[in-house]
Amino acid sequence: MADFIKQTVLKEYISSKAKVRVNKTALKKLIGKLNATTRALVREAKRLAKQDKRTTIMPRDIAGATEKIIGRKHLTWQELAKEITRLGPIELGNISKAIDEYIEKQKPK
Question: Domain 1-73: which CATH class?
């Protein structure tokens, strides 16, 4: 099966950006993991597209596949606040309502 990432490209990136050398065996192992992850992401994104009866992978399919295969990033409260400010008024209202409901459930009865 073809590689998505070539050794020379990754080695050059590591050398120029990380400013370190990389062992040939370590490089092969990293490329293997990256290629396997890419294949898994494409398979899952394809599944999500087909589930929605589409033959085109959309950004939402990539997001869903990434969350499933790689995992969700846990945001700091500052990062979360920044993401929330990008939402519209309706979404902000829904978040506010959900927070109010959560607080009510936590109150002792």
Answer: mainly alpha
How far out from the chain centre does Cα 25 lie? 27
Residues recorded for the chain: 109
Structure tokens at 53: 């009866």
Q: What is the DSSP string of 3-61?
A: -SS-HHHHHHHIIIII-----HHHHHHHHHHHHHHHHHHHHHHHHHHHHTT-SS--HHH
> Alpha-carbon distance 8 to 102, whole Å?
52
Per-residue pLDDT tens over the stretch 35-94: 999 999 999 999 999 999 999 999 999 999 999 999 877 878 888 888 888 888 898 999
Token pair 């999500």 in the structure block, residue: 48
